[in-house]
Specification:
By secondary structure, the protein is α+β, with helices and mostly antiparallel strands. It has two domains: 72 residues, Orthogonal Bundle (Arc Repressor Mutant, subunit A), CATH 1.10.10.10; 77 residues, no CATH class. 37% of the residues lie in helices and 13% in strands. The chain contains seven helices and five strands; from the N terminus they run ααααββααββαβ. Strands 3-4-5 form a three-stranded antiparallel sheet, with no helix packed on it. Strand 1 and strand 2 form a beta hairpin. The longest helix has 14 residues.
Length: 171
């Protein structure tokens, strides 16, 4: 029997989630949406992804109700929906895993802090200061140490300063 390429015949909740979220680039697109990247051109430049792949992934995310396409200032923008915002704990867990277990030379040193307490979140997304597990709107991302060869696209430059999640990146 040939190995399938999708999960359509599986009745597993994880398989259903992976059907939408498991494609290459999807979680990085969502990460950038949490960072406040809204415009197609900014996603394209920051992710260094092909226009065709980005278009396909965004269309899939819109169809699945993960992001919403709106017109703002004469340009389409992409905003997380409630379903998209609900991916935050998974995305955060994957980011922390990569920081902890990824190759040391590829770790970013980026941290996430609770907006209200300014305490760094633990690996489970909890604030050790107040015990809350803040939603993404109450999280501030702080860059790691600057490195030679850091990217120079407008989003990367903007994210070199602390930035509250879900707040538009000034690109």
């Amino acid at each position: 029997m040939a190995l399938g390429i999708g999960y359509a015949d599986q009745t597993c909740n994880l398989a259903r989630a992976l059907e939408v979220l498991g494609e290459r680039w999807t979680m990085l697109i969502l990460r950038d949406c949490f960072y406040g990247v809204r415009r197609f051109s900014d996603l394209l430049a920051h992710l260094d992804i092909s226009r065709a792949v980005l278009t396909e992934r965004l269309n899939t995310l819109v169809e699945a109700g993960i992001v919403e396409r709106r017109a703002e200032g004469g340009h389409p923008v992409y905003l997380l929906t409630e379903a998209g915002t609900a991916t935050w704990p998974s995305l955060y867990a994957l980011a922390r895993w990569g920081e902890r277990f990824g190759p040391p030379e590829r770790r970013s040193g980026r941290t996430f802090r609770h907006w209200g307490c300014d305490a760094e979140l633990d690996d489970h997304g909890r604030c050790p200061e107040c015990g809350a597990t803040p939603g993404p709107a109450d999280v501030v991302t702080h860059p790691g140490p600057a490195r030679a060869g850091d990217r120079t696209d407008p989003v990367s430059v903007a994210l070199r300063s602390p930035h509250r999640l879900l707040t538009s990146v000034p690109a």
